[in-house]
Amino acid sequence: MAANIGNLCILAGNANPELAKKIADNIGVNLLDAYVGKFNNGETQVMISESIRGKDVFIIQPTSQPVNDNLMELLVMTDACKRASAHSITAVVPYYAYARQDRKTRGREPISAKLVANLMQTAGVTRVVTVDLHAGQIQGFFDIPVDHLAAAPVIANYFRTQHLKDVVVVSPDLGGVTRARVLADHLHTPIAIIEKRRPKPGCAEVMNIIGEVKDKTVIVIDDIVDTAGSLCEGAKALRKLGAKTIYATCSHAILSDPAVQRINESPIEKLVITDTIPLPPEKYSPKFVTLTLSEALANVILRIQSHRSVSQLFR
Predict the structure, then answer these.
(1) Which of 58, 97, 266, 307 could form a disulfide with 63 if both were Cys (CB 3.0 to 4.6 A apart)?
(2) 0.90 exceeded by the pTM?
(3) CB within 8 A of 256, min separation 6: which ones?
């Protein structure tokens, strides 16, 4: 079934306009003519300059830094589309903010990931497309369809081109084993696991490594690299245990200070990231390799538009 391109519109926010443009180019449509900015008092302003009545609108807007500004932009853009009589509004949110606040770990804590889901639905989002949620159960916070995509196939394609030998895929913690297994299955390699504990938020201590890494080329995979503390400590532990070459990869490179400095000073050879979050020039490092998910996201949008299976793309 062919996609109805004539009814498809792509609206870009300010979070990642480069990714939005690449997606539109892959599909073969122009971005909607719209202004997304601020009033003089700092409030979000959205003006859509062409008719979207009866259209299927896809809003490209990761909720990366500045998180609350980008989230509010998404909500206001959604409301504008709903009031302009759009037929459907799909929020393409490659990076889903507040995903690490998916449960209560102590008293009087919010579940912010659920709050964000409620806000998006209340604003008028009818479908969500996202990439590598920190916690897969966040899909259940929505009462609308959620397409949860994995960056692993794109990352695996990159590593295949490097023709690496004696590869082991490493999970940086017990919770990331499933993610590591997916990449390992793509590359037909074994996995290893770093066992660590967090004495306090933002601080990790490596306790043990499960699996054989001596004289191996290791690929450490995580969904998010924020301050890079646990990633770099894990890399040091792998080097001490005899890992020959250490690569790292993640879907979402937040890179809060001092992440770039830590990575540059670590034994990590390359950090392979995706463009779910734009990489500003001040965070550039020669160790970084950025892969685009624009083609994969464009294919997902086309499949949604033509009512075809999305999961088949990732088999």
Answers:
(1) 97
(2) yes
(3) 226, 227
